[in-house]
């Protein structure tokens, strides 16, 4: 599931200077959407590239009154809500029975639709559920109670709508993304604090990241093999001391190779780099697939992983291919399968062992190394259900 962060920046926030500061902070943090008033749409587009949701019309998402006639605008999507006191709420009577007019959600043209509702009690929750049947987007803003209606809506609403929960902090965003394990599809953040905006975006990123189960394998052989074309992957990100990439000659068994974060008396650290092995080897990508190292080029995405199996994405900035002397490393998994890879014969290339980081030049048979193992075959980097022999 792809998560997203929406930032609320309509006239309830304050004057344009206040709204602009909030929007600028959101752009710098990497929010996905900004929700503003119609008059601010072009102003937002001048500030930077972001999806714009607008009350009434003019944005990529159009917020309007569910009971008012359709305007002449033809936005890419429609979010329906009652634009009352500047808070985008739907004003329903306390005796609401679930029969509110949703005709504005039913558009003849092929446009996305949505609903924006402030949850005051169970009647408003019922309205949100009803609106979700018609809407591609359902934005719900909790008041006195938040978790229970969100749980109910997550349980009752299917894939026909994107459920977006209103939040005011990164911790509330985390809860929204984790509720009932499925979580909301997105959050609408109402905050001026740049730190809160950045933290909420970080929560979004962590919620999307894959968690891998790494395992130990026993080195059965390490031998010099002569020279081969070796690939250094230089990313646009600085890696931590426990991060690296998963690479290997066999897609089912990828070795954890550390980034060059360690200081050396002879070579400066390069924490943006992984010396990943020979051109034929696979490297794992963020979508769960693989690419040959020889295929990588500037602008591609690769998956970074730490020793606990936590992942993130990085952009390739440069790939360096040079002929270097190599080692062949073979290891046996707990299931008895043997996998191998080629790594450069140099002290700066380090793998993870039970004892910690260890240079490939010091690795010995009997050492246990960290790898990612899966019993699937791959065709053009995609997992397939067929018998493929790699050796």
From TrEMBL:
Keywords of the record: Amino-acid biosynthesis, Aromatic amino acid biosynthesis, Lyase, NAD, Oxidoreductase
Source species: Halalkalicoccus jeotgali (strain DSM 18796 / CECT 7217 / JCM 14584 / KCTC 4019 / B3)
Gene name for this UniProt entry: aroB'
GO biological-process terms attached to the record: amino acid biosynthetic process; aromatic amino acid family biosynthetic process
Catalytic activity from the UniProt record: 2-amino-2,3,7-trideoxy-D-lyxo-hept-6-ulosonate + NAD(+) + H2O = 3-dehydroquinate + NH4(+) + NADH + H(+)
Keyword Amino-acid biosynthesis: yes
UniProt domain 3-dehydroquinate synthase C-terminal: residue ranges: 217-391
EC numbers on record: 1.4.1.24
Stored InterPro entries: DHQS, DHQS/DOIS_N, DHQS_C
EC class name: oxidoreductase
GO terms of molecular function: 3-dehydroquinate synthase activity; dehydroquinate synthase activity; NAD binding
Known role: Catalyzes the oxidative deamination and cyclization of 2-amino-3,7-dideoxy-D-threo-hept-6-ulosonic acid (ADH) to yield 3-dehydroquinate (DHQ), which is fed into the canonical shikimic pathway of aromatic amino acid biosynthesis.
Domain 3-dehydroquinate synthase N-terminal per the UniProt entry, residue ranges: 3-203
Protein name, per record: 3-dehydroquinate synthase
Similarity comment: family membership: Belongs to the archaeal-type DHQ synthase family.
């Amino acid at each position: 599931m792809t998560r997203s962060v929406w930032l609320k920046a309509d006239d309830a926030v304050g004057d344009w200077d206040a709204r602009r500061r909030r929007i600028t902070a959101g752009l710098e943090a990497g929010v996905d959407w900004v929700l503003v008033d119609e008059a601010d749409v072009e102003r937002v587009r001048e500030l930077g590239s972001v999806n714009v949701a607008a009350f009434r019309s003019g944005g990529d998402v159009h917020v309007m009154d569910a009971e008012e006639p359709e305007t002449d605008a033809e936005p890419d999507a429609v979010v329906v809500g009652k634009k009352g006191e500047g808070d985008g709420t739907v004003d329903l009577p306390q005796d609401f029975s679930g029969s509110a007019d949703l005709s504005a959600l039913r558009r003849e043209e092929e446009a996305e639709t949505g609903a924006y509702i402030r949850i005051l009690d169970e009647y408003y929750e019922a309205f949100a559920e009803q609106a979700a049947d018609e809407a591609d987007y359902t934005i719900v803003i909790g008041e006195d109670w938040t978790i229970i209606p969100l749980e109910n809506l997550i349980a009752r609403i299917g894939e026909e709508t994107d459920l977006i929960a209103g939040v005011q902090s990164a911790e509330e965003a985390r809860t929204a993304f984790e509720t009932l394990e499925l979580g909301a599809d997105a959050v609408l953040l109402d905050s001026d604090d740049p730190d809160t905006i950045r933290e909420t975006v970080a929560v979004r990123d962590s919620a999307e990241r894959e968690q891998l189960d790494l395992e130990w394998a026993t080195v059965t052989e390490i031998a010099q093999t002569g020279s081969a074309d070796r690939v250094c992957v230089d990313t646009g990100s600085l890696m931590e001391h426990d991060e690296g990439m998963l690479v290997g000659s066999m897609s089912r068994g990828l070795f954890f190779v550390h980034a060059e974060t360690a200081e050396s008396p002879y070579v400066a650290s390069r924490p943006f780099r992984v010396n990943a092995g020979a051109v034929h080897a696979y490297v794992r990508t963020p979508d769960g697939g693989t690419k040959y190292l020889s295929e990588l080029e500037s602008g591609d995405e690769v998956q970074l992983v730490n020793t606990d199996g936590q992942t993130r994405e990085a952009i390739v900035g440069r790939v360096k291919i040079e002929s270097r002397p190599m080692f062949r490393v073979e290891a046996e998994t707990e299931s008895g399968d043997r996998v191998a890879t080629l790594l450069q014969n140099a002290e700066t290339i380090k793998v993870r062992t039970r004892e910690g980081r260890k240079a490939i030049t010091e690795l010995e048979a009997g050492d246990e190394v960290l790898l990612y193992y899966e019993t699937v075959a791959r065709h053009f980097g995609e997992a397939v259900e067929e018998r493929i022999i790699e050796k």
